[in-house]
Amino acid sequence: MQIQTNFSLRHFNTFGLESTARYFAEVRSVDELTEILLDPVWQQTPKFILSGGSNVLFTKDMDALVIHPDIRGIEKIKEDDANIWLRLGGGVNWHVFVMYCVEKNYGGVENLSLIPGTVGAAPMQNIGAYGVEVKDVIVSVEAVAVNDGTLRVFSKEECRFGYRESIFKKELKDQYIITNVTFKLSKNPVLNIAYGDIQKTLQELNVTEATIKDVSNAVIHIRRSKLPDPAQIGNAGSFFKNPEIAETQFSALKNRYPEMPGYPVNDRMVKVPAGWLIEKAGWKGYREGSIGVHERQALVLVNYGGGNGNDIKRLSEKIQDSVEEKFGIRLSAEVNFV
To answer: Residue ranges of the FAD-binding PCMH-type domain (predicted)?
Structure first.
């Protein structure tokens, strides 16, 4: 295992932002990870875990040992007539995993097609799209403690999943490195096509009796039509969370803005699309030098090339202030600032 110095992270974050790691190590097994964590040479050095880099905004150089976990592998744990349990390395590309499941007709993750990042990062953020969250299919998460290299298995309940949240983003932030995740998938899939434009897109694609492959194709079609490819334009997907507001507040806003969309969370709370709020506040397509707001999806902040992380951070704060002034709703960033 090689420790590199003054290592550029530009190709390790989907914004394509320049940041230099003082030290950088790529680990491909739990043993390698434990070895570097327990090495006396590195124990007092600050550490930063960088997985797929699809949810991070670099605003500075990293005066730390940046560890890039790249543990691969897909292993069948068990199966019965209804379900199959798969254990995956945290370094597996998320979309590759989804395509693996789609091809084998294992249901549960097809709505999460084309989300950038890795399997290990998915539970940290509790990624979600089109009415599905990754917590719906997670059984357990294996992680190594940064301070002493011990391996711990977290049950689904112990992960304390919430909307784009988990124990790894809150109480145990920066304390564990996710190495493997076990999923329970259905061999008799029940399709979830009620959210967003999936039904409409299936009709446009002339699909009458949908399969999970059809649903996946529809989601991919929608995402490609709305979201920029990070390989072409630097971005981290959805920059802000969709806010959940009180039903009374939503009703009041609906009187002022009859076209405002909302999705009931329960009998008291309503989820409002952040992209709609940002667009109505006038930010869609806004550009400021090398950075801006995507022209087709206001929820996505972009780096057109040569952008600066602090400039993107300042732009995000302007958007937050603007939306709060217009709607009385304070947006929360989904992207992690570093």
So the answer is: 16-188
Count Cβ atoms within 10 A of the Cβ of residue 154 and give its class: 0-12 exposed, 13-18 middle, 19 or more buried.
buried
How far from 19 is each of 24, 64, 137, 162, 273, CA to CA, in Å?
Answer: 12, 12, 35, 30, 32
Spatial CA neighbour of 48 closest among 248, 338, 252: 338
Question: Given 26, 110, 133, 334, which residue is catalytic?
Answer: 334
Closest CA to 134 of 195, 183, 72: 183
Q: Per residue in 125-184, pLDDT tens? A: 899 988 899 999 999 999 999 988 999 999 999 999 998 899 998 899 889 999 999 999
Q: What is the DSSP letter of 220?
A: H
Distances (CA, A) of 73 to 109, 131, 264: 18, 28, 38
Catalytic residue among 164, 166, 216, 316: 164
Domain segments of the chain: what residues? 3-69, 74-186, 234-337
Classified by CATH at the fold level, domain 74-186 comes out as 3.30.465
Single out the catalytic residue among 54, 140, 238, 316: 238
pLDDT in tens, 206-253: 888 889 999 999 999 988 888 888 888 999 988 999 999 999 999 999
Give the per-residue pLDDT at 313: 96
334 catalytic residue (yes or no): yes
Res 77 pLDDT > 90 = yes
Query: CB of 53 within 8 A of CB of 91?
Result: no
Q: What are phi and psi of 229, to 5 degrees?
A: -75, 120
Asked: is 3-69 a CATH 3.30.43.10 domain? The reply is yes
Query: In the chain, what percentage of residues exceed pLDDT 90?
Result: 77
The architecture (CATH level 2) of 234-337 comes to Alpha-Beta Complex (3.90)
User: Does residue 140 carry a catalytic annotation?
Assistant: no
pLDDT above 90: residue 204: no
Active-site residue, 238 included: yes
DSSP bridge partners of 278: none
DSSP letter (8 states) at residue 242 = P
Got the DSSP string for 198-212?
HHHHHHHTT-SS--H
